Amino acid sequence: MRLAFISHPDCGRHDTGWGHPEHVGRLRAIPRALRDDAELFAELLHYEARHATPNELALAHDPAYVERVREMSAAGGGAIDADTIVSEGSWDAARAAVGAVLDSVDMVLDGRATRSFAAVRPPGHHALRARGMGFCLFGSIAIGAHYARAQHKISRVLIVDWDVHHGNGTQALVQDEPEIRFVSMHQWPWYPGTGPASDRGPHGSAWNVPMPAALPAAQYLAALLRAVDEATQEWTPELVLVSSGFDSLAGDPLGGFTLEIEDVSILTRELVDRANSWCGGRIVSSLEGGYAPARLGKGVVAHLRGML
User: Fold this and answer.
1) C-alpha–C-alpha distance, residues 158 and 161, integer Å
2) Is 125 one of the catalytic residues?
3) Residues 125-159 pLDDT 10s
4) Sign of the C-alpha dihedral computed for residues 148, 152, 155 and 160 taken in this order
């Protein structure tokens, strides 16, 4: 089993300022945590991501919006909304984040790796077709799903999103393709206010699992895995994509879930077991939220160990 770890130094150039929850310290926490697990670090296949092209970004986004982000970044930056910042380095950072997911898809589907983790920022699961929001510029996982289908000619893709916030952007960007199924467990009511259980998308290919804050962790795990099993009943994915949001961990300043590090391990191993039976274990995971950097780093290590 080969596990790829893909990132790019440009992801650190997305400058939101240290007062913003989604700051560069989140990404720096991951190598710090990995240094404490030398055995795991040595087992990973380390790769530097490429930059996604504008045509690849347009697999899910309006080309005019893609160009607007490029122009904003080239002009020194600005704000898409009160939460979503574009800096001078954001164009390269966001393209590297998407490129890491696309490289991950290539590696997993051509056999160079069994599973892959993209350690990237900015996150992506709130980005809409023509607008960024919720710290997100481009929908990396959604683009990855469309890319896998277009480039590798696979049909069925399962997306699992365990960020504490609903992946509204991912759902919007994939729900018109019935063979891309989307499962999101998220805090409710909470930002961005979308994702009721009744929202199944136009083809019934979305499984939204809204959950209140402060429940015992086992209830969150059971609810998410039950939805995954429902989504894959008599339907076998050829690739699993994971939006790994570590803001679902207890103590995150932007969430109220109660998961601990061991729960990340359990969720990961449960998905690996299912993926092994579905598609040869092929999983591509990408970093989404997580705003307590030390907890984020430990969560990523647990996730990586679970994928091994």
Assistant:
1) 10
2) no
3) 999 999 999 999 999 999 999 999 999 999 999 99
4) negative
* CA–CA distance, 182 with 170 (Å, rounded to integer): 8
DSSP assignment of 118-162, as one string?
E--SS--TT-BTTB-BTTBSS-HHHHHHHHHHHHH----EEEEE-
According to CATH, the topology of domain 3-307 is: Arginase; Chain A (3.40.800)
At 1, the pLDDT band (50, 70, 90 cuts) reads: confident
Q: How far apart are CA 16 and CA 201, in angstroms?
A: 33
284-296 confidence digits (pLDDT tens): 999 999 999 999 9
Catalytic residue among 14, 51, 61, 126: 126
Strand order, beta sheet including 3-7? 45-48, 3-7, 115-118, 283-287, 239-244, 157-161, 180-187, 206-211
